[in-house]
Amino acid sequence: MVGGGQLGVLAAIALRRSLPGCEVIVIGGQPGPASFADWSPTAMPFTNKLHDRLGIAEADIIAKAGGSYRLVTRLSGWGGAGQGSVVAYGDALDPALRTALARDRARAAGAHAPAPASLAQVLAEAGRFAPPPPGEPSPLAAVDYALRWHPPAYRALLIAAAQALGIGYVEGVIDRIELVDGDDNIAAIGIAGQGLIAADLFVDCSGPQAAVLAGHPHFVFTDWSDSLPTRHIYCAAPAAPVIALEDRVTLTSAGWVTEVAGRDGRHITLGTPAALPRAAAEALLGAPVQAAIALTPGCAAEPWIGNVVALGDAAARFEPLGPLHLDLAHRQLALLLEMLPGRAMAPLERAEYNRRSGLMMEGVREVLAMHFASPEAQRVFGSCALPGRVAAVIDQFERRGRIPFREELPLLGQEQFALLVALGWTPGLSPAAKAADPAAETSARAAFEANARAALAFAPSYGPWLASAAAVSPAPSG
Which helix (H) or strand (E) element contains residue 271? Predict the structure, then answer.
């Protein structure tokens, strides 16, 4: 396992649990600031399921890693001044209510479109939430959520789990790669001053430098610069703790700004199309710049070559506009576990992994490209190419209020619908929306309102509940 950040350690835990008879070694130290997956303070709901599978308890993340919860993300400014909406997780909206909302949005003329009927949004705006009790009926059972954490504390929690599983660790810099004669496989990698380490499988979690994969003679990089225009990233050090159930993504005249709330402080990141003077970047961040990163977006044409598999930033580089880095890495890790090879790796296994992992990476590219396709974003970042099926998705959404299915996309249909509305597009009306049953819609609205009242009555006030669940007074800092 090459890469000692939070992704590399979690991947080591995953492989050790899947192959308990194998030796697993993590190679590397603290990741650099451009390893966005390794420094991400949050992920998406998929990661909760992966944690459960790997024995990483949610309660431990809350109590030992500065954990907290996100129900919605609020987007502002992407459709013009004063425009904004929220995106919640899940795809469980009643079909009749979905039809009614589509009609409401079509009437609302874009800028002031109503928010989706989401229990998550109701709870977030009221400041009430606790995760539903597992295995018990609850008014919160249908509410999906994401976790946040303090990255160094979360990494320390994973390291403790890895040590308990007997996973080895070697700190050092890779100074050479030795290939098997007449083969695509790597025989060993050299660690400066420590000699060679041989392995049957190398998992590259080393960040954007892709220390192993990029050294393979068959590595090819696919450039995404034509569709993803962010070239400079500025990160601020977290300041005062923020207890909130929403995060924010705002478009300004200079670029985008993301704000991730946390018990260790608010994590603020700025992305711009051109370099800014430090003072200008700090004015937009509202805090000193901790790291400034130049970005060339793109991905590995094949993230699995020979016996080397790249995950996360080692497989794809893009702007940290939301928690997509760690979500992509964790989805790729789950796919690797699904297709885990034996010592002899079949070409068809590699090809299928590369196909599905490639779809995951292209899906991330498409979701990001939707942001920059909005008219307001084009005024800030300039016009960009629309990759994949982005143009078709926007066309179908505007004409019919429809989201075409795409395989391995990071967002569900309802989440994509809410994102496009938040980015300033107005949905058209499908035939179902034009010929809906008013009685069914009235019943669906009434049921939602009843569910919302029940959820608000059941959920505790979030701040006091989180303090109790954390069972510690000070939040992690640094």
Answer: strand 267-272
What is the model's pTM?
0.93
Is the pLDDT assigned to residue 219 strictly greater than 90? yes
Give the pLDDT of residue 54.
97
Q: Are strands 68-70 and 146-148 parallel, antiparallel or unpaired?
A: antiparallel
Q: Please, which residues bridge with residue 186 across strands?
A: 179
Q: Which long-range contacts link 408-413 to residues 24+ away (Cβ below 8 Å)?
A: 408/331, 408/356, 408/359, 408/360, 408/363, 409/363, 409/366, 409/367, 410/44, 410/324, 410/327, 410/328, 410/331, 410/360, 410/363, 410/364, 410/367, 411/367, 412/89, 412/90, 412/91, 413/91
Residues 404, 200: Cα–Cα separation, whole Å = 41
Q: Among residues 272, 228, 227, which one has the least CA distance to residue 253? A: 272
| Contacts made by residues 109-112, CB under 8 angstroms, sequence distance 24+ | 109/426, 110/79, 110/83, 110/424, 110/425, 110/426, 111/79, 111/80, 111/82, 111/83, 111/424, 112/83
Q: Which of the four pLDDT bands, split at 50, 70 and 90, describes residue 440?
A: confident
pLDDT tens per residue, range 103-139: 666 555 544 445 456 899 999 999 999 999 888 889 9
